[in-house]
């Protein structure tokens, strides 16, 4: 039986989220599946991905073929890197402990990038809300030039008071 790792669509109209499932390749997209291994929500920023790495790796070892989108998700979460490292272990390029250490360091680096992206998104949201809510800025007081004001007062003040003209 040809087995695929693919996405099944859930959610309402224009608000999708997906389950990552193991399914027979001949089954319909949202039809019967063998096992659910995770979920993917592209509507959040950044996209939310939850996946059971051990089950996904197990199914890849059994020969399940991921679809293009599922492959991208597995690559992002480190499952494909885990498979790559495991192949090196079977060929004798390195030990299992070395492979586990490489995977952990890669996952830690990836998590720091994700956290930085989340912090940047939070800051963008704060800036956007400041713009939308119309944060009132304190008016900037114009700089006063004392010498220019004194010169202006001297020019505008009359030296002799003008005579008052009475209307007849």
Structure description:
The chain has helices at residues 53-62, 68-77, 79-91, 96-133, 146-156, and strands at residues 3-12, 15-24, 35-41, 48-51, 65-66. With 168 residues, it is an alpha+beta fold. The protein has a single domain (3-133), classed as S16 Ribosomal Protein, Chain: A (2-Layer Sandwich), CATH 3.30.1320. Strand 1 (3-12) and strand 2 (15-24) form a beta hairpin. Helix 1 (53-62) crosses helix 3 and helix 3 packs antiparallel against helix 4. The protein is elongated, with a radius of gyration of 34 Å. The mean pLDDT is 88.
Shape: elongated
Lateral arrangement of strands in the main beta sheet: 4-3-2-1-5
Number of strands: 5
- CATH C-level category: Alpha Beta
The tally of structural domains comes to 1
Output the CATH homologous superfamily.
Answer: Ribosomal protein S16
Q: Percent of residues in helical segments?
A: 40-55%
* Strand content range: 15-25%
If you consult CATH, what is the topology? S16 Ribosomal Protein, Chain: A
The CATH architecture can be given as 2-Layer Sandwich
